[in-house]
Amino acid sequence: MSVRYLAAGLAGLAAAACATTETPIACRDASAAERAAFGAIVAHDEARVAQMTTDPALSRRIADLDPAVAAQVFGQRMGDRSVRTVLMQPPLCVYDAPQSDTERLAYVFPSGRFERLQNDALPGAELGMAAVDHAACRFVNQGGQWTLADACLATFAPPPAPAS
Predict the structure, then answer these.
(1) CA-based nearest residue to 84, from 156, 152, 31
(2) What is the pTM of this model?
């Protein structure tokens, strides 16, 4: 009789463990296309960043070094709150936040920062402070290739509303 209770108890524990086990939140290495885009920003190669950006109006603003865009993407001085400051701390890891089948927001973190920000007691990923802990880059899928859409200006946009 006690063996039956023990077996039932172990089965219950196993079922409870399966029910509460979630996929751990993790970031991944940047893809080759992402590394190319991030490298252009780090190199302060505004012509290449403009060429990689899918929005023609934004591409012109980057190529013309619009002061507001340039400050957010490249910064004015080393260490400014900017996309470039975050990307200059390799190795980088990327946490994906899919927006649709053809669009995703990639949060890019310096080495180890993503892991240090996570809190198991809170649901979802902890992202920290934009342009300090992460850069946020919008990518769109065009012809089966993920392409940089916004020169990582999503870093300074309000975060998307959580999916309900």
Answers:
(1) 152
(2) 0.80
